[in-house]
Amino acid sequence: MKEYFEKIYSKTKNEFNTLLEEKITKNEKTFIVTANPETLMIAEENSDFKKCLLDEKTTIVPDGVGVVKGAKMLGLEMPETIPGVELCSKIFEVCNKQKKSVYFLGAKKEVLDLLIEKVKKDYPDLVIAGYENGYVEDKEKAYEEIKKVKPDVVLVAIGIPYQELLIYKNLNDFDKGIFMGVGGSFDVLSGFKKRAPKIFIKLKLEWLYRITTEPKRLKRFFKSNVKYLFIIRKEKKEKK
Fold first, then answer.
1. What tens digit of pLDDT does each residue of 147-206 get?
2. What is d(CA 154, CA 203) in angstroms, rounded to the nearest whole number?
3. How far, in Å, CA of 95 to CA of 211, rounded?
4. Which of 103, 182, 183, 212 is spaced 20 to 30 Å from 156 by Cα?
5. How many whole angstroms separate alpha carbon 57 and alpha carbon 31?
């Protein structure tokens, strides 16, 4: 497990935002994975996804308090979480300022339509390179369209690990661009779903809010997090 943690970005959210803006400005190709405990546990069971995460071309950021706590249990510095939904907002802000282009792939059609409408209204100088919902049957074909338009940013919301593996498989076909799997961020940013209240965010309890509002997440959450905690504790003991 430590091999993941040694790769995860270990500075502040503000520092990463500055780095992200620089990369967008310079058209520097960057693949970002936002990781929570479930992400790391999927990688432990999926060799293709593990290879994707550990590739030197992949930048991993801590998108869950469990990752930050796990790092500290292993004696590693990691000051705070960097939520994917906030990174999306930062990308919109920077692209609007620099008139950069974004391609959106994922979510339900009604969610994506709401998001595009909101982006056009709130970020009028951001260029929408194209968009396709996540329920299109041939996602590889959709990605071929992305290759044609060559956007500055590609955001994919089809769930972990499918979004990351789709990006990773096609990454070498691009000379530039920020690529990021964003999970359920389109739902939140479009207004289709509400983000956790500020008190939950402040107390690092967004995961609890999601579970209480979407009980179907409960089984998945405990399955991955209990296993994750067991592995972290085992590695901590072995380190002593």
1. 999 999 999 999 999 999 999 999 999 999 999 999 999 999 999 876 667 776 676 666
2. 31
3. 32
4. 212
5. 7
Nearest Cα to 167, choosing from 25, 30, 22, 43?
30
- Other Cβ atoms closer than 10 A to 141: 10
**Per-residue pLDDT tens digits for 16-56:** 999 999 999 999 999 999 999 999 999 999 999 999 999 99
Q: H-helix or E-strand containing 133?
A: none
One-letter-per-residue 3-state SS of 136-204: CCCHHHHHHHHHHHCCCEEEEECCCCHHHHHHHHHHHHCCCCEEEECCCHHHHHCCCCCCCCHHHHHCC
Residue-wise burial string across 25-61, b where 16 or more C-beta atoms lie within 10 A, e elsewhere? eeeeebbbbbbbbbbbbbbeeeeebbebbeeeebbbb
